[in-house]
Design goal:
CATH class of the domain at 26-195: Mainly Beta
CATH topology of the domain at 26-195: Immunoglobulin-like
Helix content: 40-55%
Strand order of the largest sheet: 6-5-9-3-2-12-15-14
Number of helices: 26
Strand content: 15-25%
Oligomer: single chain
CATH architecture of the domain at 26-195: Sandwich
Length: about 900
């Protein structure tokens, strides 16, 4: 069977059709005779009928397998005693309990989909979430079938000296034919999606961690030998995460060893396989010379995320894939908290919300809109989305806001103790929070079942005679596919009131008899409209609403430029200071887009320049926050604010605004840059990251002045940089400068770093997002470059993905060339790796928001994809949703 074959007819899986498994597995014994071309897998399953099931035949999942033999309780079955389809094995007659032995053959080196067991460079490794285990052996491949695994790995001792699997090492030995074996045992029942193995000739860096109960845990990170000097940060991040999870959630690690393996070919960022986390190499390898601050930050976050899954995902897992956010949303919240505690809480919150608004809000507004707990899917891999992860985290975060930190901790403690070793649902999670806090969260659960981004409308009216502020909050939610009508959500709205001098004003409601001593309070909106009356206000307050972004909603609150500028200067909440600045920029830039469309002279208000100057000059503000406040909204986000997105007008206006700010504030940018551009030994910490971030924002503005001296300054920074953060910041700026210096910079960078795959991906990306007119021509040329492989997901994301998602003015070229390019690449990718192909379709998500000509061109490209023969279920599902009326 060809490894690239797709199911003949995609089938819809529905939440309402869930039923408990008919058979359970107590123990699994697996033996792998590993080889890249052909691996022999022998499985022994001790199974029993599930009293909660509906009976019937025993059905196992299996894809792309060569069946060698089947034995039931020691008796080999003849061909007429079982039935096979392309994806199942059915045993019509089995006893109440039995032992099933199955032997299969698989071909790792043919597996370009990177699901199941596959070959990555010189490494054999697995990826089984969501449904990859069925590509290894016949098995009930669903998360609610949990079993204790014992795994024996056999391989050539010279070729693959490291043999790793889940759990604890149990035994090992040498064989006469030059092979060796290692046996692993995981005492904790787990579903098949958490199974993992790795075989390779790898460098191992070790450390120790002492748990809060005094147990010693061995920590091991495995990488290709040439990357031996890039493990320290991931190892330190792991120890930080282990200690943090004990301190904040009371969760202790439960095996004798915790392993991380870095592989070059991986569909995702990382995978939380019990005790054996497999990481995309880009998400674990770091040194100052090759990784940027953003890389260090991301690695710390992802290492934390995968480790935190040990409890929120592994010890307590999801009953079915509709509950995916049960583990992912909760764990994203945990890794966000971790990153905030390790670094800058304010900047962490800003970055989290910026990503949510830019990506998830767009998903909610498009044809792929779906609830945090979806109702149906064709291919579950398509639902590893920002809605499941980031919006899911916001939903759990709202539970934390409603219950308070202590109440939330009580709820999570109850959840873990009540459901340890079980496969459960989002309802079970919410029930634990309810029971621990004596709350009724029935209405709150609409966040899990209703799609779309609610709109929060805010109106404020002050009565000077009565010294009363009436704050009216209204909510609505637009229709989404399959959900034309929405019921009111529970929306926690954190807010504050400010005096004309910026001081906090009292937050006492007319229903309260005593004053409230707080700068911020949370109002809970449960109806379509509610009015809250604040008393004893001797002056008209300035309202600060949705502090800390307390709910994932869009806010409609009419505020003039002066009010937004005031909040930008005085709000007590760092997030709202940044947000007020962003809203001010958006308000001004959208007005300028209208001016551009009407051929009017562009006018940048002085109030914006004045406020940005104050931010730039204020030494009391965290430089990291200053860098965020000085950064302009992206072209994609500006487009999302328009009924009909005008990419050309947005691009022209954003470029003009940056140039005007650069020219008017040039002296300030120059002063700040010089003060920050001091030689120091690189460290990954909040202080240094903040300084480098602001320094490079200043350099970006200085380059926007068009002054040739700034180009020389940029080149000088690149030449003197001893870290990738400053070097890459310079290269990104040089790529937008036409001329020989640009080509020299790109050539020199590649010549220096061509042997480092992660750095080469950065080189691909800076060219993919170039502002210059030759961007698509260059991207097409890079497809043929030796550094690029269509089989490597990181290469695809770095070049094709970045061009199509983050270079809107060129992707949305009027001639449709960007759309045709993406359609061609998706059809090529679909034959190699359907998951990666389907994810590239996201660039078409908002296709109906553009003008009629561009819509027609995008629809044509989507139709070309839909009309192709033998589409994978992954691509089939998304492209047909995009084209649905």
């Amino acid at each position: 069977m060809n490894i690239a074959e797709a199911p003949a007819q995609p089938q819809i899986t529905r939440l309402d059709d869930y039923r408990a498994p008919d058979y359970l597995i107590d123990t699994v014994s697996l033996e792998f005779e590993l080889d890249a071309s052909e691996t022999r897998v022998s499985s022994k399953l001790k199974m029993r009928r599930n009293p909660e099931g509906q009976g019937g035949p025993c059905i196992l999942n299996g894809e792309y397998l060569t069946l060698v033999s089947i034995a039931l309780d020691g008796k080999t079955l003849a061909g007429n005693e079982y039935q096979r389809t392309t994806d199942t094995l059915l045993l019509p007659q089995v006893p109440a309990s039995f032992e099933l032995e199955v032997v299969t053959l698989i071909h790792p080196d043919q597996n370009t989909a990177l699901e199941g067991l596959y070959h990555s460079g010189a490494i054999l490794c697995t990826q089984c979430e969501a449904e990859g285990f069925r590509r290894i052996t016949y098995y009930p491949d669903r998360p609610d079938v949990m079993a204790v695994f014992t795994v024996t790995l056999i391989a050539d001792a010279k070729k693959w000296p490291m043999l790793l699997a889940n759990g604890n090492r149990q035994a090992s030995g040498e064989m006469e034919d030059g092979r060796h074996w290692v046996r692993w045992h995981d005492p904790h029942p787990k579903p098949s999606y958490l199974f993992a193995l790795v075989a390779g000739d790898l460098y191992c860096q070790q450390d120790q961690f002492t748990t809060m109960s005094g147990r010693q845990v061995l920590l091991e990170i495995y990488v290709d030998p040439e990357n031996h000097n890039k493990c320290d940060h991931a190892l330190n991040s792991l120890k930080q995460a282990m200690r943090w999870d004990e301190d904040v959630y009371g969760r202790e690690y439960d095996l004798d060893v915790f392993m991380i393996v870095a592989v070059n070919d991986f569909n995702m960022g990382a995978m939380e396989n019990k005790g054996l986390n497999i990481f995309n190499a880009a998400c674990v390898l770091a040194s100052p010379e090759t990784a940027t601050d953003a890389d260090f930050y991301t690695i710390q976050s992802i290492v934390g995320h995968e480790y935190f899954h040990n409890w929120s995902g592994n010890r307590v897992t999801c009953r079915d894939w509709f509950q995916l956010s049960l583990k992912e949303g909760f764990t994203v919240l945990r890794d966000q908290q971790f990153s905030a505690d390790m670094n800058s809480a304010a900047v962490q919150r800003i970055d989290d919300v910026d990503q949510l608004r830019s990506m998830q809000f767009a998903e909610d507004a498009g044809p792929m809109a779906h609830p945090v707990r979806p109702d149906s899917y064709i291919e579950i891999s398509n639902f590893y989305t920002v809605t499941i992860y980031e919006k899911g985290a916001e939903v759990v975060g709202m539970l934390k806001t409603l219950t308070g930190p202590e109440g939330f901790r009580k709820g999570t403690d109850l959840y873990f103790s009540r459901h340890d070793g079980q496969a459960v649902t989002t309802d079970d999670f919410v029930k634990a929070i309810e029971d621990a806090n004596q709350l009724d969260l029935t209405q709150f659960k609409r966040w899990y079942s209703q799609a779309g981004t609610p709109v929060l409308i805010v109106e404020a009216h002050y009565d000077a005679d009565k010294q009363v502020l009436e704050l009216t909050l209204r909510q609505s939610c637009p229709a989404t596919p399959g959900q034309p009508e929405k019921q009111p959500f529970v929306i926690p709205v954190a807010m504050g009131l400010l005096s004309s001098s910026g001081a906090s004003l009292p937050l006492q409601l007319d229903t309260e008899t005593s004053a409230v001593d707080a700068e911020t309070r949370v109002l809970t909106l449960t109806e379509q409209s509610q009015t809250f009356r604040f008393i004893h206000l001797t002056e008209e307050p300035v309202v600060s609403v949705l502090r800390g972004f307390s709910a994932p909603v869009k806010v409609k609150f009419e505020r003039d430029n002066e009010t937004l500028a005031f909040l930008m200067a005085h709000d007590r909440d760092s997030f709202n200071r940044w947000d007020a600045g962003q809203q001010l920029l958006i308000q001004i830039m959208l007005r300028m887009v209208e001016q551009y469309q009407s051929d009017k002279t562009l006018d940048l208000p002085e109030i914006l320049l004045d406020r940005l100057q104050h931010v730039l000059d204020d030494p009391s503000i965290d430089p990291a926050l200053v860098a965020r406040m000085l950064s302009l909204p992206s072209e994609n986000y500006l487009a999302a604010q328009m009924t009909i997105a005008d990419v050309d007008a947005i691009h022209a206006v954003r470029k003009y605004v940056k140039q005007q700010i650069a020219q008017r504030l040039k002296a300030g940018f120059n002063t700040r840059y010089q003060a920050l551009n001091q030689a120091q030994v690189y460290e990954f910490n909040a202080s240094q990251m903040a300084q480098r971030s602001l320094k490079n924002v200043c350099l970006g503005y200085l380059m926007a002045t068009g002054d040739p001296m700034q180009t020389q300054r940029c080149l000088k920074q690149m030449k003197q940089a001893d870290n990738m953060t400053d070097l890459l910041a310079g290269l990104r700026l040089m790529v937008d400068q036409p001329g020989p210096e640009r080509e020299h910079a790109l050539r020199a960078f590649y010549e220096q770093w061509q042997h480092d795959r992660q750095v080469v991906d950065k080189w691909l990306t800076v060219q993919a997002v170039s502002d210059l007119p030759d961007a698509l021509f260059r991207v097409k040329a890079l497809l043929k470059h030796p550094a690029f492989s269509m089989k490597n997901p990181n290469n695809v994301r770095a070049l094709i993905g970045q061009f199509c998602r983050n270079n809107p003015v060129h992707f949305h070229a009027k001639d449709g060339s960007g759309y045709r390019f993406l359609a061609e690449q998706i059809l090529l990718l679909d034959k190699l790796n359907p998951q990666v192909a389907a994810r590239q379709l996201g660039a078409f998500n908002s296709w109906r928001r553009y003008d009629a000509e561009r819509q027609a061109l995008m629809k044509k490209s989507l139709s070309d994809i839909a009309g192709a023969q033998d589409l994978s279920a992954d691509v089939y599902e998304i492209v047909n949703k995009y084209l649905a009326d």
